[in-house]
Fold each of these.
Amino acid sequence: MVLCQARDSRTDELIDLRLRRVQKACGQLCYTSAANLIGRRVETAPNASNVEEDEATVEGRRMEMALNFFQSKRNPTAGTRRCPVPEWKAHGFNKHETCGACSSHIEQMRTTACAADVVTDKVETHEYHIMYGVFLLPLRQAPHPVKILEIGLGCDMHYEPGASASLWPKLLPNAEIWMAEHDAACVQESVKRGWLPGIHTLTGDQSDPAVQQRWIQESGGAFDAVIDDGGHSNWQIRSTFAALWPTIKPGGFYFVEDMQAGRNSGWPQLTPRDHEAVFSDIIQSWIEQLTIERGNWRPSAGKHPLPADVAFIACQREACVIAKACKGAPASEDGK
């Protein structure tokens, strides 16, 4: 839960509402953890009983607050937000080629992102340029224009929305890019301000089955890559994967970011289904099914059946990529 640092009193009101929702859903401990995570030091939680009566008032201001958010002065982050030193430099090498065949793609991903006016947390806070450099950048040599869906525009981040949305066209100039976001007002304003040129947008709750099917119908499915950088709760990740994995083309990739949130007590898991399974545990079960003969599985390994057509799973710190086997036909909205 990372919220805009440039806040006024009405923004604080919306933040307070969100915190009260957290408190109502999972109690005082979750409330305190979430408040501390965004710098709200609290001794006691507010009364959550009036959440419903506040919602109509606060939610009615969402568009007005979105406009106010975008009118806030936004300073470019290039040169001010620190990108991590690449490993080959940290080890004293002069050329990235010394780190292996894939390092040029990894470094290109990192340097392109770091040079942007708004630096995505994919390279500033995390090191996701590793998996995207290895698996996503080679799609530039694909024999057809690639199609990518990313979930999460970054409307709740401490920098302006669309940091990664503006990055993908630079790295994959011929790609068809789709961005999905739960905050429709933020998407509308981002489009209005010209921050998403050439980007197709989808809106709605990623864990809602009706929304998932609408996204597939509106986009046409058949993705070369899907990136889940959405809400990060276990159920959001699980349900979205179940809906969108069939739409991945053979040889395509499904990326899941911020998996550390699945067992982080400071990250609210707001529904009972979030506690049914941690997505990292599911991934580890799938890896065992891929790498160990069935008769030698641990008793718990078969609890989460491996999805059809998984070729391999590769993980780095806080994230994994699931690759689809190069066989069969790509799934699309009509199932043909």
Amino acid sequence: MQLKQIGSYHDEATGLEGVKRLALTDEDAEARRLVISWMTKAGMEVRIDQIGNVYATLPGTDRTLPCVLMGSHIDTVATGGAFDGTLGVFGAIEVVRTLNENHVTTLRDIEVGFFTEEEGVRFGTDMVGSAVTASRITLDDAHALTDDDGHTVADELVRTGFDGPAHHRRPIPHAYIECHIEQGPILAGAGVDVGVVAGVQSISLAAPHRPWGSSARRHHPKLNIGTTPGLSRPKSSSSFGGCATAAPTAPSERP
């Protein structure tokens, strides 16, 4: 797998091969160029927008209609897997290849896309590219985001050559399809290969100051958020109880 080799590393603790390809690094830029070459070979028209999102179009017979958009992301977390995000891009390109091989022409344009800084690891805000195109954050705010070394998104887009000319607000697609690897044990545990998403998790993080106690995370490496099923999560109430009992007793009356 060519893309897996870009940013690959060996994890000494687990013995597994991982991928570290943070957004707008040299590794990400190399991976982007490779994926774009696959898109071009599949006969697609490639464009890059002002936040670095990449879209490739297979024209349909009626180009006035909204397209069907497929895709995901190719940036990773610091200890990523080979198929997180990339599966959705691979799968979408394979759909286009299959259509071409079978001489199938679609009514609508088919687009394959991948979004900039979807993971949010380097610049501290996740889903940057898709958030900009959906107007959740402004282009200027996204460009001003910085990494730990003070590099801005805008500067890194220019440095890597992905500060594209296309407008950041893309046309609304007729449909969006994303194939994504499961990030939990439910399908694997049930012996099921494919599932259909029925809902999306919503995570809210807080960092309360607890000078008197330890955190639940220290005792329970598996966080009580994310894709861990409810029955598999540690009881956060037990950890909180330890903090609560150790907390200073508040006075019953205030002056």
